[in-house]
């Protein structure tokens, strides 16, 4: 094990067994990167990189299968699944993500635990393993920011947040980088979670914002932009009523990630432009699973970003971003962090795969 | 990052964020374990643990989906895929495995590169990441040894090896622990590979064995047990002719792991008891893909091990073990190595997943 010198991580040239090392970024390493770059600069760069990735996204070159995994009721409700991506010739990225809503109460752990692995398709070598929890939060906030930039009224000032757990922090962060927000109305079914929200976003330096707890009905009647990021149980959605909405309301529906789980009223979806991050997956796990007529699903976010003028008229209408999580976002976030790891020489290179110069002998490494 | 003290790895009790560490076993760590335990003892224990796992295997408790992944022709022929396993309540194991037949010639790397990850289904926590290359070699040898023990003639003395790359080393190793072998007849289409075989198995201490290079026709006419472990190209099988075989020949067909790739003549399969490691996968990627009549596929190895008496009469008939790789074998091998890592205090604990006491703030770990 050696500490990382100046090495290009993402495009590591596979040479021989002696170079077969995997970059492992610990939480400490990520902290070092965030402290060096700054949270705002990191979010801004994430948004910029993700816009560029959407513009360049070519499904013929980057294959993104629907995630698969294991979901279960015992010992607690949860799932562990894999979100793979293959950018031909360049990189394979697999995010393993666990969703266990009882983690906070039972284990004092976040609901989402995650790691991301990158492989070199030339040889199959595992080039890097990094935390996916922070990265997922960051990219989910960035994706909503991009969708909102394209689909919400540009002078939106009032943000509503229904569910103000971990995801709400990055939703607000991303949006605050793109909109001149004045007021944030928040609700969480757990009052203790609402109460800590201001404290939790203190690091974002948004002191000018008027942040108020409010009833759901008041939030939806007032908000220009609404983010739902709840752990609503399967079959218990939607999480807000379809009444008294501003006619230009844009919703970022972030919570749905499970068959049967959804947050947005069907009647609102039916008269909105619904923009999924990843259509095929949104139909299975997102708000789109409510739409029996698949024709009523709008373009994916990558298409909206490619042709912004074509979608600008929706900024004065109801729009819903159906965010289920898209592996391209994880790839972009991972590569940004790996680039900073290289630049700042953080991370640990570990020889994890047993390979020696004598490739035809699986035991030679012990001799 | 701290070095591993005496901690139970496999059954780590998830406590709180401060305990959320992942055990990473480097190649050095694995080497330490192998040197301490010894290759023969490790293979013997692998065989014993795998027999026990087969005996206890309950598909209702341990879910093993068919592997999925990406396969491609460019920049070189290859695939990277994931073999997941979920033992309910206890463990999720995912092996990532790359198969790139040009690795040895292009990069001086093994054809197979692999890592294995284990997750705690209580919280989704990644408990361990270890090399999968050595582990795959070991468990593939052990699986063939177990199949051969159950299905070959007990006094088999002559082993034929067609394809004597990395896999052949562990095939011979596993079989040498269960049979009183006298002679090994070897063939590889690359003479350079044949020439180094004796040298590569020197670590096995099998000096009493008569190891001879031979033509394929002589090998199949003489062998009691035959192992095929080739990188035959798709559509170019079988790798030996169906002629002059001993009527009790047992074949371990190890190479097939790709749609269209197979090693055993169909005519031999049709008059053999064909025992797949994992039926559903063998039908897609193994020798079983040649058998259009699925009824002609025999029981899986786990069933044979559960009811040995029922299958003993096949020891005097043609039998084929269709080994495509079964995630249960990987789980058993991983847990054996993790148990030794605990016992010997090797490995590195890394805090890889960003989680802090403040579970509702994805940014709190940087504050």
Shape of chain A: globular
Q: Helical amount among residues of chain A, as a percent range?
A: 25-40%
The ordered H/E elements of chain A are: EEHHEEEEHEEHEHEHHEHEEHEHHHEHE
- Count the E strands of chain A: 16
Rg of chain A to the nearest angstrom?
21 Å
Query: Mean pLDDT across all residues of chain A, rounded?
Result: 92
The greatest inter-chain interface is formed by: A-B, 99 and 99 residues
CATH superfamily grouping of the largest domain in chain A: NAD(P)-binding Rossmann-like Domain
Q: Which fold does the CATH topology of the largest domain in chain A refer to?
A: Rossmann fold
- CATH architecture of the largest domain in chain A, by name, is 3-Layer(aba) Sandwich
- Uncertain runs of chain A are 1-15
Q: Briefly, what CATH class of the largest domain in chain A?
A: Alpha Beta
Oligomer: homodimer
How many helix segments of chain A?
A: 13
Major β-sheet annotation of chain A: 9 strands, mixed
Strand content of chain A: 15-25%
Which structural class is indicated by helix and strand composition of chain A? alpha/beta
End-to-end Cα distance of chain A, whole Å, is: 19 Å
Count of structural domains of chain A: 2
InterPro entries (chains A, B): NAD(P)-bd_dom_sf (IPR036291), ODC_Mu_crystall (IPR003462), ODC_N (IPR023401)
Protein name (chains A, B): Ornithine cyclodeaminase family protein
Organism (chains A, B): Leptolyngbya cf. ectocarpi LEGE 11479
Pfam family, one (chains A, B): OCD_Mu_crystall
Structure description:
2 copies of one chain form a homodimer. Chain A is an alpha/beta fold and 367 residues long. Chain A has 2 domains: 2-135 and 328-366, ornithine cyclodeaminase, domain 1 (2-Layer Sandwich), CATH 3.30.1780.10; 147-326, Rossmann fold, CATH 3.40.50.720. In chain A, 33% of the residues lie in helices and 22% in strands. Chain A contains 13 helices and 16 strands. In chain A, strands 1, 2, 3, 4, 5, 6, 7, 8 and 16 form a 9-stranded mixed sheet that branches. A 7-stranded parallel sheet of chain A has the order 11-10-9-12-13-15-14, with helices on both faces. In chain A, helix 2 (39-56) crosses helix 4 (133-151) and helix 2 crosses helix 13. The two termini of chain A are 19 Å apart. At the A-B interface, strand 2, helix 1, strand 4, strand 5 and strand 6 of A face strand 2, helix 1, strand 4, strand 5 and strand 6 of B.
């Amino acid at each position: 094990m050696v500490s990382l010198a100046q090495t290009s991580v993402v495009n590591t040239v596979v040479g021989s067994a002696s170079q077969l090392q995997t970059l492992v970024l610990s939480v400490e390493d990520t902290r070092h990167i965030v402290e060096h770059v700054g949270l705002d600069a990191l979010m801004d760069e994430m948004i910029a990189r993700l816009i560029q990735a959407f513009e360049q996204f070519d499904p013929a070159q980057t294959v993104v299968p629907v995630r698969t995994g294991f979901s279960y009721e015992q010992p607690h409700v949860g799932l562990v699944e894999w979100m793979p991506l293959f950018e031909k010739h360049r990189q394979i990225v697999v995010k393993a993500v666990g969703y266990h809503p009882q983690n906070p109460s039972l284990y004092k752990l976040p609901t989402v635990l995650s790691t991301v692995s990158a492989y070199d398709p030339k040889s199959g070598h595992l080039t890097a393993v990094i935390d996916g929890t922070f990265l997922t939060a960051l990219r989910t906030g960035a994706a909503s920011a991009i969708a909102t930039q394209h689909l919400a009224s540009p002078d939106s000032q009032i943000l509503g947040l229904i569910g103000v757990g971990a995801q709400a922090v990055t939703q607000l962060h991303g949006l605050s980088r793109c909109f001149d927000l004045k007021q944030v109305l928040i609700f969480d079914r757990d009052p203790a979670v609402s109460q800590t929200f201001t404290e939790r976003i203190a690091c974002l330096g948004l002191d000018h914002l008027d942040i108020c707890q409010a009833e759901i009905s008041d939030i939806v009647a007032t908000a220009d932009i609404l983010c739902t990021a709840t752990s609503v149980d399967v079959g218990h959605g939607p999480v807000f009523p379809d009444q008294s909405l501003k006619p230009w309301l844009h919703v970022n529906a972030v919570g749905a990630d499970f068959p049967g789980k959804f947050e947005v009223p069907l009647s609102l979806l039916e008269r909105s432009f619904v923009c999924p991050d990843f259509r095929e997956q949104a139909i299975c796990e997102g708000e789109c699973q409510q739409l029996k007529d698949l024709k009523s699903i709008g373009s994916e976010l990558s298409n909206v970003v490619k042709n912004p003028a074509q979608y600008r008229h929706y900024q004065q209408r109801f729009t819903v971003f159906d965010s289920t999580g898209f592996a391209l976002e994880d790839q972009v976030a991972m590569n940004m962090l790996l680039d900073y790891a290289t630049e700042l020489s953080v991370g640990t290179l570990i020889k994890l795969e047993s390979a020696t110069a004598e490739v035809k002998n699986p035991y030679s490494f012990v001799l």
